[in-house]
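FORM 7B: Structural annotation worksheet

SECTION A. Query
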Amino acid sequence: DTFEGGPVHAGAVIIPAVLAAAEQHGLAGTDAARGIAVGCEVMCRLCLVAPKRVHQAGFHPTAVFGALGAAAGVSSALRLDDKQWFNALGIAGSMASGIIEYLAEGAWTKRMHPGWAAQAGYRAARMAQAGFIGPRTLFDGEHGFFHAFANCDACDFTAMLDGAGKQWLCADIAFKPYACGTMAHPYIDCARKLAAQGVAPGDVTSIECKTAEGIVHR
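SECTION B. Predicted structure
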């Protein structure tokens, strides 16, 4: 699953975190569904504050936004009050992590990031439930989340809140027809069309593709 605005893979983080909470605490299905919806929505909306900047700063958006989204989702599933809910996000801000240096040589750390974010969000929610206090200025503080992970002080927080509660961005999460990065999907479609037309691998001498700038560095 992919929300291209990040890009982030919300389901890979939020669903395991909320299902773990539901199993551990005997939550109803409606609580789990609410937690998944809220967690995915928070994760998607965080992407709008400083689009692409987290990735450009060298961090994995799924990993760092995922910790906050999981904290929000688990907090909602557990029915934490407003103070606990905000504390959970503040705590998760100090648990968020994940650099994209795996791109250099195909290291395995990317595979770890969604699970790490999920457990971080769950732990943050449980700590907040127990009374632990996180910073209220997590997002817009001088040393806040976006200053650290997006190297950005000019963030658009109104974009994160615009239409909240009425427009669900998580409804635009895309399903992957192929088990690889979405940036490679158009080329797979082209290859399948060529194969359907009878073009065999041995008939191909070279391939030239137009692509986005970001893929070149991978």
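SECTION C. Observations
The chain has a mean pLDDT of 92. The chain has ten helices and no strands.

SECTION D. Sign-off
Analyst initials: ____
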